[in-house]
Design goal:
Length: 508
RNA sequence: GGCGCGUUGGUCAAUCGGCUAAGACGCCUCCCUUUCACGGAGGAAUGACGGGUUCGACUCCCGUACGUGCUACCA
């Protein structure tokens, strides 16, 4: 066990990269970095019926945005090219045949109709379907029931056929998992999975073990949904004669939906108003676009940090970790066994922390893409000033616009009624005088302005508190935002006077 | 249905036999702030159930319940 650590993330490019997928990438990445190993990205596109244009490129983009770039991939290349299973197609057949020759697999010629019939005919009760296994394979059309001659003829005639593993009877198959410890399976309950499909492509089961072997993978991390098929993989490692090279397994817990039960899905995100994909995904087949964490205004570091904590912690209570710190602290043994419900509020909290830890200047280029087009080119020093004023009330990058749009455009007043209720001629006169005073004052900074405002209010026989809120609503449009006089200082005299005048008109 | 996996506050979770059960998110109260936030101080809220083992069990074992995953020529 002193081989160089090599791990892989092996997605099937069929759509957006889901939270759970990114976390699997992350744990692979952390483990590889921690142990000075290699992180491989392998594209498992063996199902040609599920090909989705753009899905592969999307994965590369996601990993890059997350800052989790692989050392070897279809894009980058590496010592074990190609890294796409569709391009490795020709390599799998010989292993399937090797298994047939050794008596660990067989050819099966059953049509979909025949399979369907078998599943119904041999089921033990109404709730289940029969498996293709030791009980039923003797009743099907395969090289176990057909003579060698018949089998040969069928194959030579080009009869569609698959290769199935011949699962042994009465064995206990043990999977030793780094997270869960020992799990045992009764081989009598494992079915004869297809290894090589009729189109010549391997199934996942054959492809993972062959490629993990060929690519010298030492540790295989994947979602918990794979645990039930682990015995098939164990058997394959054994039958192919690679038992000593078998990677160590770790089956990661699932990420569940926040409410109710079940695995988190794209639909839940839509229903509950949060993303489940890392980045925006456009499905060219269904022609629908799904927004992602990036579009929502997450910083990749925060997104990664949040994901790391969903199912793992270092035991100290620390929650904020840089990627480098995660690399140092991460250990697969501390990953939980149980699934975690995703909590979007907590996710936002992580992002808030990261935003607060950045200076306004650092935030300028990050916030800019979330500005509406008309203001995307806003002056950087203005932007920096605004960001500095509002960042502590922003959790997402897109919050900067909702919290600060009034710095850039005259707002629509949504809370006029709150002013109107207590409006008076005295106040009207006061605000007119205040606007006039703004134009002549030489000391245009928030502290001086506030003092002037207070003094004038008193002179007009008004309480400062009675005119603060009206001023805020005139300038901001609603009851929110940073200090009113900071706002006056930033938007400047002309704009402030204009908004006051506009509001006075609206109140008339 | 079968098989696998899991189960500490609403959520994420610490604990690896000594618990008066950390911490974080969220929620509530108060302070700060003549707005809303931020920040500060408090608060409510937890071991699924039943048996064992043990001086002692949230921690170990066995059942039960519940949840979840798989049960495709999909991954």
């Amino acid at each position: 066990m002193n081989k160089k650590v090599r791990v892989r993330f092996a997605p099937s490019p069929t759509g957006g990269l889901h939270l759970g997928g990114v976390r699997t990438v992350l744990y692979n990445y952390l483990f590889a970095r921690k142990h000075g190993g290699d992180f491989v990205l392998r594209i498992e596109d063996t199902d040609q019926t599920r090909f989705v244009p753009g899905a592969e490129e999307y994965i590369y983009d996601c990993l890059e945005w997350c800052g989790l770039s692989p050392d070897e991939s279809p894009l980058k290349g590496g010592p074990f090219v190609p890294y796409k299973q569709s391009e490795r197609k020709s390599g799998y057949k010989k292993y399937a045949e090797q298994l047939v020759a050794a008596g660990h697999a067989y050819y099966a010629f059953d049509t979909p109709e025949e399979l369907e019939h078998m599943r119904n005919a041999y089921r033990v009760d109404a709730h289940s379907t029969a498996q293709y296994d030791k009980n039923t394979r003797t009743k099907m059309r395969n090289s176990l029931t057909l003579s060698a001659e018949e089998t040969k003829t069928l194959i030579e005639n080009g009869t569609p056929h698959v290769v199935r593993i011949k699962v042994p009877e009465n064995q206990t198959i043990v999977c030793n998992d780094m997270i869960r410890g020992v799990t045992q399976f009764d081989s009598n309950l494992v079915d004869d999975k297809v290894l090589l499909k009729a189109d010549g492509m391997p199934t996942y089961h054959l492809a993972v073990v062959v490629d993990d072997y060929l690519m010298k993978i030492t540790h295989a991390f994947r979602g918990e949904e794979w645990l039930p098929s682990a015995p098939v993989h164990m058997l394959l490692w054994d039958y192919l004669g690679w038992k000593d090279e078998m990677p160590q397994w770790a089956h990661l817990p699932l990420i569940l939906k926040p409410d109710g039960n079940g695995k988190l899905s794209k639909r839940d995100g839509e229903r509950l108003g949060f993303p489940v994909f890392a980045m925006k995904w456009h499905d060219p087949i269904k022609n629908e676009t799904t927004s992602g964490f990036r579009e929502m205004g997450f910083l990749p570091e925060a997104f990664i940090n949040m994901l790391a904590m969903l199912g793992w912690n270092d035991g100290t209570g620390t929650e904020i970790f840089s990627l480098q710190e995660l690399v140092e602290k991460f250990s697969i043994e501390r990953v939980h066994k149980g699934g975690a419900k995703f909590d979007f509020e907590k996710a936002k909290w992580f992002n808030h922390q990261y935003i607060q830890n950045k200076s306004a200047a650092e935030l300028v280029p990050l916030v800019r893409p979330y500005m509406p087009e008309a203001h995307a080119g806003a002056d950087s020093s203005l932007l920096e000033q605004v960001i500095g004023l509002i960042k502590d009330r922003c959790s997402l990058l897109k919050d900067f616009w909702v919290q600060g749009s009034f710095f850039f455009e005259t707002p629509v007043i949504t809370e006029l009624q709150a002013v109107k209720d207590k409006w008076s001629d005295t106040k009207k006169v006061f605000f007119e005088q205040f606007a006039a005073a703004l134009k002549t004052t030489t000391d245009f900074n928030h502290a001086a302005l506030e003092q002037m405002f207070g003094t004038m209010a008193t002179e007009a026989g008004l309480k400062k508190g009675d005119v603060m809120l009206p001023l805020r609503i005139m300038l901001v449009g609603g009851k929110f935002g940073p200090g009113v006089f900071n706002i006056v200082e930033v938007i400047g005299c002309d704009e402030a006077c204009k908004r006051i005048a506009l509001a006075i008109d609206a109140l008339a």
